[in-house]
Amino acid sequence: MTKSAFERGQLNRIRLHVLPTQRFKTFSISLYMGSPLTEATVTANALIPFVLRRGTASTPETIAFRERLDELYGAGFGFDVYKRGDSQIIQFRMDVINDRFVSSEQPLLASSLKFLGEVLTAPAVENGYFRDKYVQAEKETLRKRLEAIINDKIRYAAERCLEEMCRDEPYRLHPLGQMADIDAITPQSLTQRYQSLLSEAAFDLYVVGDTTLEEVKSLVAEAFQTGSGTPSSYTMPPVARKVADVRTVIERMDVSQGKLNMGLRINTSYGDEDYPAALMYNGILGGYPHSKLFLNVREKASLAYYAASRLDGHKGICTIQSGIEIDNFDKATAIIEEQLASMRTGTYSDLEMNQTKAMIANHLRELQDSANEMIGFDFNAILTGRERSADELMRQVQAVTAGQIAAIAQKTELDTIYFLRDGKED
């Protein structure tokens, strides 16, 4: 089996992953902080990075905080909050130019890791708690992010389909939390949650650039005060789940175009041997412009403005999204179910097979051109315990047969049909 090119180590509670390379003119740094998705903590966890980005103990004012990034030759700094399986992940990212290309007084990798270590472990506080003005301002930022999902009906329908499908699983929760929980958060409660997160979370620090594991380890020892202990690990949820009955959920809002979404249990996860066949299944079904959903639902039948599918290999779920005329619900549902049935026959054209393999291979090759994409791909191994390189996955995909795709299709079950339509009663 081809192993990743990342070198591994650990320092107290932080796992270290370093890819020494001179391919890039920058250092790319990613810090992942993961914890279980729970209703009690999801909203506060999501708010924490918004508050941390406002300032540190040494630069508590946001303007001065941002000036430090300018002093690092305009280093990029940002974060994401998302979910993988039943875990909520906060990812901090930094990109800073390699010292070889500028005349910096301070080593820029060291300065960047010091900055990131401060952001995480030495935030701006007053009276021992997060600054009230930052907490209140970022509560509004978070509220607007959640409102934006409601206002974007394509995103809203996709989230609601998952919420209904996984109604008794942690995965139903949005990684940015719940609007109803925002008001009750105080600087005191948020600080307590932050301290708990620091002591409980799984930490993975990635560095890609012209450095070594030994150098990164010594710099992290100086920059991060996460306390002693051993790293926490991820527990991926079992994906095998039988569907007793297909649920149909119809929601009414002020919309002019219907949003028809379907949730499928594919009963295969990223770590499984048949994951490459699941990638092919999704690609032929609705992953690309040559797929069955696009050609048959959108092009031939003219029933949808868009029709596509998306695979979540960490949860073993495939979702179908389509935008349709509200009166076409029955027709569109029937023709989508026909495509699911045709996937089970194992009859795929050479064009479908070859184009899908080519599209997946192109995507995997493109990963190698981006340090951040390489980091994201490698993190899959940490989450799932299944280490495979992009080249290895590419070879596995190329070897997938029609029979293997049909085997995925035959164990895939339609779980939930979600339809967002107008408020008019029939």
From TrEMBL:
It comes from the Bacteria. It holds the Pfam family Peptidase_M16_C. Residues 185-358 form the Peptidase M16 C-terminal domain. InterPro entries: Metalloenz_LuxS/M16, MPP/UQCRC_Complex, Peptidase_M16_C. NCBIfam families: YfmF_fam (NF047422). This is Insulinase family protein.
